[in-house]
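Hey,

Quick one before I head out. I ran the complex with D-ribose overnight. Inputs first:
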Amino acid sequence: MYAIASDHAGLPLKRSIEEHLKERGIEYKDYGTDTEASCDYAVFGKRACDAVMRGECERAILCCGTGVGISIAANKVRGIRCVCCSDPYSAAMGRRHNDANALAIGARVVGTELANFIVDAFLDAAFEGDRHARRVGQIMAIERGEEIE
Ligand code: RB5
């Protein structure tokens, strides 16, 4: 189960990604927004990321105008490692090297077809562990306020 969320600016891209997930047979839960009324990306990004951290969803896919605001908000949720991507390579490497558990895409930056490639890259790549596990561990230590050197 994937969590998906957007603000008003990200809503059209979120709808398009939802169609893509349906075509791929991937289950998702939509944490809003569901109207074009202006709203605050942090609220919806946090809802989706909280679901990931509660273990109800595997990972989150988030959309706002740039992908930037919602990714910054997502990365403030303890345990979330969100990558804001405009290309499939970064999305795949975010999984393989950074064990990203959230993906943000900007609806005003990325077209719907490219977004599908980015989503696929994120869905299909796996964390490689090994030296990357040490580095991700350091990121999580920073989050806990620990020294890492
Ligand atoms: C909303 O206008 C816009 O600021 C928001 O979607 C996002 O791009 C912020 O980072």
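The CA atoms of residues 41 and 98 lie 23 Å apart.

Talk tomorrow,
K.
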